[in-house]
Every structure is written in structure tokens, then in C-alpha cells.
Amino acid sequence: APHPVQPKFAATVMLVRDAKPDQGPYRIEDSNFPPDFPNNQNIEVFMFRRVKAMDFAPDAVAFPGGRVDERDANPDLPWCGPTPAEWAELLGVAEEDARRIVVAAVRELFEECGVLLAGPNDYSTVIDLSDPIWEVNRKALVAHKVAFADMLIERKLVLRSDLLGLISNWCTPTYEPKRFDTFFFSALVPEGQQADGNTSEAQIADWVTPSFAIRESDAERWLLFPPTIFNLGQIAEAHSAQEFVSKRKRVQKVTPEAFRKDDGTLVMRAKLPA
User: Fold this and answer.
1) Which of 104, 242, 117, 113 shows the shortest CA–CA distance to 184?
2) Looking at the DSSP assignment, which residues form a beta bridge with residue 11?
């Protein structure tokens, strides 16, 4: 593409937990693991199968997430954990963009999974989300009737950025008409909360072991994009969910590009910054 579309910032959260045998249907029980992939099933990750009517990545199996909203930049939002300036160093973006990206990660997790990384102070999170008003707030956020930062401020809640890990940064190839510069975070479900799939964007939502997802992709039953495959590998290599979430490193932007091999085959490869 001679004039590629400018990518929009987006945030995705890999919600993980320690796996147990017979805990869910999306794990391998017959020992038929995918080749060239870690065959341990120590960790599960919450994934969606996107509805087929989606404009971007329809029917793909992915982690909860979405684009950044300009209203995610409210500087009055109480904040715990790495500051926006510290996140900016890790993300490789301006401080204002870092604030928006981190807030978007927490917002998307609440919108799509009902998991809220916020609490009344720096040491706790909301435990009980059973009050119907939370679902009202969630629907209002999805409909863009309210800003997430404003909702937290009104409820006197602190955004817990310290509960987020940071794993990778992937950008949509230059030839795509819709492009996203996406940061992949990680998190645990806070005590007392529970992830759900109450979103119009998902036809299926559940906990999955990475090896099961890769096997389904190999069999062409699940559609997984390269960033998802890469990050599933990162999860599979960790020994525990806590270990995976504790990773918070400076990331390099990866942009897949088309490459034609000597035999004429067209493949995708990852392009790192110079």
C-alpha cells in the first residue's frame, strides 16, 4: 500500500487463571497436543469467538479488547500503579497516549467480561458486582453514553494499573484498510469477581488452554490471527498465571508483512522496528 492507513491505538487483555483438570471443555484430555507447541496446560485464558457480523476479524477467536476512546484520557481519574509516564516508557508512546491505552485496557475488560480492575483504594478491588446498576453502567459504556473515567470518578474508585502485566505490541499490516496498533496486557480476575461473555460481540466466551486453541486452529476449526497465536505461546510457556501477569516489560512493535519465498509461496513474517 503506497499510502497505508494510520493505525488507531487499541488495547487487549489476556485474562488468565491457573488451570485444573476437568475445569472446562476447552482443554486437551486425549493427549493429542499440537506439534511444536508447549503441551503443558498450566494456565487458561479467557477468549471470545467474535460474531460473524463484526466489521473487523469476524468469527475470529481472540482476547477481549478494543480501540482507545478519546475520553479515556481524563487526568482526574484516581490512579494506582505505574504512572502514565512510566507506562509511556514501556509502551513506547507519549504519556497522554499511554494514559488512554491503559484506561482502554481496563475499560474493555469491564465492557466485554464484566471484570473491573478498580477499587475504593490502592489496596483493594470491587468485590461484589451483582448490583444491577453495574450492568446498567456496562451497557452505557458499550453504547458510548458515558465515559469510563467519569464512571469511576463518580463511584470514587481508583484505577488499578498495577494489576496489569504487559506482554507485546502488534500492528495491523500496512495493506489492511483498517489498522490497529494493539497493546497486549495480562491480568488476573480480582477476588470475588467472575468473567462472563455478556457482550454482543461474542458468540462464544469461555476459558481455554493455549494448546487447545492452537490445535483447533491447526484443524481449521478456529480462526486465530498471528498476534493471538504468538501471545498464546507466551501464556503456554509460563508456569503459573501469577508468573505470567507479573511480566511487565518494554515492548517492541511487531508489524506482520507479506513475503514471497523463492518458490513463489506467499507467507507472513513479523517485521520488527529498525
Assistant:
1) 104
2) 66, 183
H helix runs in the chain, sequence order: 84-91, 95-113, 132-142, 148-154, 210-218, 226-237, 241-245
Burial class of 20 by CB neighbour count within 10 A (0 to 12, 13 to 18, 19+): exposed
- Please report how the helices 210-218 and 226-237 are oriented relative to each other, as an axis angle in degrees rounded to 10: 140
Backbone angles phi, psi at 71, to 5 degrees: -75, -5
Task: Give the pLDDT band (50/70/90) at residue 54.
Answer: low
Asked if residue 148 lies in contact with residue 71, where contact means CB atoms within 8 angstroms, the answer is yes
CB 216 within 8 A of CB 208: no
**Starting at the edge strand that comes first in sequence, how are the strands of the sheet with 79-80 ordered?**
79-80, 158-160, 118-119
- At position 3, the amino acid (one-letter code) is H
Cα distances from 40 to residues 95, 167, 237, 258, in angstroms, run: 38, 20, 8, 32
| Residue 150 zone, left/alpha/beta (φ > 0; ψ -120 to 50; rest) | alpha
| All residues at 6 or more sequence positions from 263 whose CB lies less than 8 Å from its CB, including other chains | none
pTM above 0.90? Answer: yes
Q: Which residues contact 145 (CB under 8 A, 6 or more apart)?
A: none
Residue 227, pLDDT score? 93
Alpha-carbon gap, residue 221 to 255, rounded angstroms: 25
Going from the C-alpha of 162 to that of each of 67, 78, 84, 118, 119, the distances in angstroms are: 21, 13, 11, 10, 12
pLDDT of residue 274: 56
Q: Could you read off the pLDDT of 108-167 as tens digits, one per residue?
A: 999 999 999 999 999 999 999 989 999 999 999 989 999 999 999 999 999 999 999 999
